[in-house]
Amino acid sequence: MALAGLPPSNQLSAPFYHLSRRLAAVIFGRFYRLEVTGGSNWPSNGPGILCPKHQRWEDIPVVGLAFPKPLYYIAKVELFRYPMLRRLMLALGGVPLDRGRPQATLSSFRYAERLLYQRQYLVLFPEGTYVPGRVGPGKHRLIQLLLKLQNRDGLTPLAFLPVGISYQPQTPGYKVRVRLGAPVYAPGPAQAPELTQTLMEQIAQLCD
User: Fold this and answer.
1) In what order do the strands lie in the sheet with 174-180?
2) How far apart are CA 66 and CA 163, in angstroms?
3) What SS3 class is residue 169?
4) pLDDT digits (tens, 9 = 90+) for 153-195
5) 96 Cβ neighbours under 8 A, 6+ residues apart
6) How buried is 1 (Cβ within 10 angstroms: 0-12 exposed, 13-18 middle, 19+ buried)?
7) Rounded to 10 degrees, what is the CA torsion of 74, 76, 80, 86?
8) Cα(42)–Cα(28) distance, integer angstroms
9) What domains, with CATH codes, occur in the chain?
């Protein structure tokens, strides 16, 4: 069953986002030691699209804790099926998109477009699903759609930022390394497959 995208009124709740981030820092701090490098690669101005490695559910809060700015997560529309979870995810910056049928969530894509015009930062896991223990193939279709927005009505070139995440078990908890790579750009949608391949190669290096 197809699910609708975002109604016009839904958007990230900044107070709730920052409160949740502080709570997550306290809770995750009991089990994880976060080490973030590559901060100098962060663009001085948006828009930007973070492209992290995806291997476990913890990647989502880890990325949110690693980078101080509010982030908007592009997520599978199926995750928004349940009303309570949907409201929570929308308040935390979730953007439901159907990768296979973008027209089914057109309002969400327009919302993502509006965020880019506002110089915000999106999070897109290019593997599209959990791939533990290795770097899986990247999916370029959504990247291609985003690249179509470049230079439209003054939208600046989109910076795609590869992010490596590695979990290193230690006692009593995990050390989690997050490494931000240099921005990757492409002139247009025709280069989406090449851009995606470059991102995956960079992500693999950043996870070593």
Assistant:
1) 32-37, 174-180, 159-169, 48-52, 121-123, 71-76, 94-97
2) 10
3) strand
4) 878 899 999 999 999 887 667 899 999 999 999 999 999 999 9
5) 3, 5, 6, 75, 76, 77, 79, 80, 86, 89, 105, 108
6) exposed
7) -20
8) 24
9) 14-207 (3.40.1130.10)
